[in-house]
Amino acid sequence: MKKNKIISLLGFALAVVICATGCGHAIVLSNSDVDNNSDLYYNGNEISGIPLPKDTLKPAEEIPLETKQHETASETTEVYTTAQTEGDTPTEAPQTPAVPQTPDVPQTQASEEKPIETIPETTAVQTTKAPQNSSDQTAAPPPSSNILPDDDLPVNSYKALNYSEMKAVWISYFELYPILTGKTKAQFEKGIGEYFDNAKSLGINTVYVHVRPYGDAIYKSEYFPWSKYCTGYIGEDPGFDPLKVMIEQAHKRNISFHAWINPLRCYQQDDAPQVDDSYLTKQWYNYNDGDYIVKVNSYWYLNPAYEQVTDLIALGVSEIVSGYDVDGVHIDDYFYPTTESWFDRTAFNKSGYTSLSQFRLDNCTRMVSTMYNAVKSHNKTVLFGISTQGNVTNNQEVLYADVKKWCSEPGYADYMAPQIYYGFENSGQPFSEVVDEWDKMLSGTGKTLVPGLAVYKIGTEDTWAGSGKYEWINNTEIIKRQIEKSRTAKCYGGIALYSYQFIFEPSSDVSAAVQKEIAAFKPLLN
Predict the structure, then answer these.
(1) Rounded to whole angstroms, how far apart are CA atoms 176 and 244?
(2) pLDDT digits 0-9 by tens, 231-243
(3) What would the pLDDT profile of 304-320 be if each residue is shown by its tens digit?
(4) Residue 102 phi, psi dihedral angles, 5° rounding
């Protein structure tokens, strides 16, 4: 490739920014002010420029032209939903070093009822649709290498470190990015050590840290490629094991480490062609796209309708629990990415189900059950936790996460950490009532309730909270009062703060408010 073409392509890649709607205010990865009228500000989300992780870029490789095998990506239609919104990158763009593209403020999606206080009004977003006559199509047979190995991984004798009151914080891949991507082992040890020192100083005793955000692995895996958030390039070995480093650094400080994974969210669209064909997810991309793996907006998602898919996810969990001294495995609210029927039409038509909703609820339940069993079969002392949305109806009817079943029956979770990202004055989902609702669902089960609290909303307008939209601006000590309320729950097992960067590196416009809130709630954590 000619030098001027490389420069041109790299310049274009630097200009590409992909955004996603979230359940609140998305993270600002620099402290510079953002013009709310600019093209980079919309739907309550702010983004800002992110430096490339390497001083000198290696030559970029072109992504192959569309093979026409990936039919679900060949046509688009406007679907009204509040699921993730990403801008599509041209398929001929070069592979570029990773930059955080979708801040993991956990997703909020539309329900049929669309209560304004919790769900944004719908917007038209681009998403792919299935080929015509897809209800009659038969999925291409998987290649012979699509055979999953038996789970004969050894039991881990490590005794997990967990606390009767979990005082947790989420650390997402985009928060790992500045200390991990392109860094040496020594640099990463220093960076993650500082993160954990900061957490410890606040009174935190548990961390939920991303180890598999996009069908990839921030650890040495047999089933998933190295995450591009390790070196900047998907599939590239960083030369050390970041997960091993994080666990060692956490345990040095008596911090419990829960490995946070996104089981269904897979590759970003431009990463998929770069993945080695030896991985099963890439084989599905090559042979079963639109069925085993499906493109929604700018992401590929695994389809939990197939046992082979959920078995692969469970094997990934087994690999972590068997091979690493983790204290917990943690998943969040990325279940079904759309309510549209084309997503899993082929599987549904063959399923014998008459209700698509029940079909999807059962698929997610099977996935969660296999993950729970994978944890317990390799280390009974390790906890399995689920962080769904706080809104029970949205979980059941939009994400197809059967939280009522998972809370009330054994074999699905040890703790539930619902994202109760609402103020006390939220019109549709007032915090106290939601806590009581979850506490009632968990009553008598032995499972614990760990409410997720929205530090990211401090000092901001809560657009969809109805009459409580200015609560986070006008009122004080909200997080403190939420911790106090949470502790009244009969099934109380702790609280979790979203997230590290909003606490320790808040944007300049809310920094003063955040510091006041921390001063108020810190004594409760110590």
Answers:
(1) 14
(2) 999 999 999 999 9
(3) 999 999 999 999 999 99
(4) -135, 90
